[in-house]
Specification:
Elements (H helix, E strand, L loop, with lengths): L3 H12 L4 H10 L7 H8 L3 H13 L3 E3 L7 E3 L2 H23 L11 E3 L3 H14 L3 E6 L1 H16 L3 E6 L9 E4 L3 H7 L3 E7 L3 E7 L6 E7 L2 H21 L15 H4 L2 H10 L13
Parallel strand pairs: 4-5, 5-6
Antiparallel strand pairs: 1-2, 3-9, 4-7, 7-8, 8-9
Length: 290
């Protein structure tokens, strides 16, 4: 009789890409003596033909081995060994796909606004944005999103990107200027969920509202509209500056706030918008036009 532990193991294996019956076969064999295909099929309660088909697939995936003796006993490859091989093959496939897609990775202008649905989709988009950041990142991050993105914020700062974030529970992320909300308890209790507001180089922005546990997304939108991203940059900049003013000097190193407004920082999004509209092109922050 299947136990909760068996069910959890089967679901975890299906999460790796196993079919239901493949997961049942591997879960049955792990920690047991080698068994015949016939015994396995009875043990998992599946037709013999389907079980043998699953076993053949698992052999190809490096998850089980077959004794070529008379009984053709099947044994599970030890989990650590199997998972190491699985990770290596996944890495190889990912790099092959990356190489195949490289010549099609063209930056196409797109000013549409897109809806994002799931938690992982939102956080991965935020991480990708931070990975693309070159000049300045501004954010308004509740504790859950801040913790989830801390390593990516630090990595952007380590590349020389200016990162300034309004926070509600400081984490002291390396290289990041954190501006704490003076009345964080009131803000967290009064807002219906955890908020993520992020703008990168005034070139793309992401707005999301998660539930309190960060498990589900109430609503999230992302866009590379330069116009909307420029507006959002200034919105977040003003929110950060207002928060610092309310804190009455609670921010250590207030020099980090100087020049974060759109016209003062002159980020890539503003320069792109000026080019698109035929306006005067602002120089880059270092004085050189891109």
């Amino acid at each position: 009789m299947a136990t909760t532990s068996d069910d959890n193991l089967s679901k975890a294996l299906q999460g790796l890409g196993f079919s239901e019956i493949e997961a049942l076969v591997y879960a049955f064999l792990v920690g047991r003596e080698p068994a015949t295909g016939y015994r396995i099929s009875h043990g998992i309660g599946k037709p013999t033909a389907n079980s043998y088909k699953a076993i053949a697939s698992l052999v190809q995936q490096g998850a089980v081995q077959v004794d070529e003796g008379g009984n053709r006993l099947i044994r599970a490859v030890p989990p650590d060994e199997f998972l190491a091989g699985f990770e290596r093959r996944a890495r190889e496939k990912r790099e092959a796909a990356r190489a195949a897609l490289a010549d099609r990775s063209v930056d196409v202008a797109d000013d549409r606004v897109y809806t994002l649905r799931g938690r992982d989709q939102v956080l991965e988009r935020a991480r990708a944005m931070l990975g693309r950041a070159r000049e300045i990142v501004l954010g308004d991050l509740f504790p859950g999103p801040l913790e989830a993105l801390a390593a990516d914020l630090a990595a952007a700062a380590a590349r020389g990107v200016r990162v300034v974030v309004k926070v509600y529970s400081p984490l002291d992320v390396p290289g990041v200027a954190e501006v704490p909300e003076a009345d964080a308890a009131r803000a967290l209790s009064g807002w219906p969920g955890q908020q993520l507001s992020l703008v990168v180089d005034a070139d793309e922005h992401l707005l999301a509202l998660f539930d309190a546990t960060l498990a589900n997304v109430h609503q999230a939108v992302w866009s590379r509209s330069t116009f909307l991203s420029c507006l959002h940059h200034n919105h977040v900049a003003m929110e950060i500056l207002h928060t610092a003013w309310k804190g009455r000097g609670s921010l250590a190193g207030a020099d980090s706030l100087v020049g974060i407004s759109l016209l003062s920082s002159r980020p890539a999004g503003l320069r792109r918008l000026q080019k698109l509209t035929g306006g005067a092109i602002s120089p880059e922050p270092d004085g050189e036009d891109r």
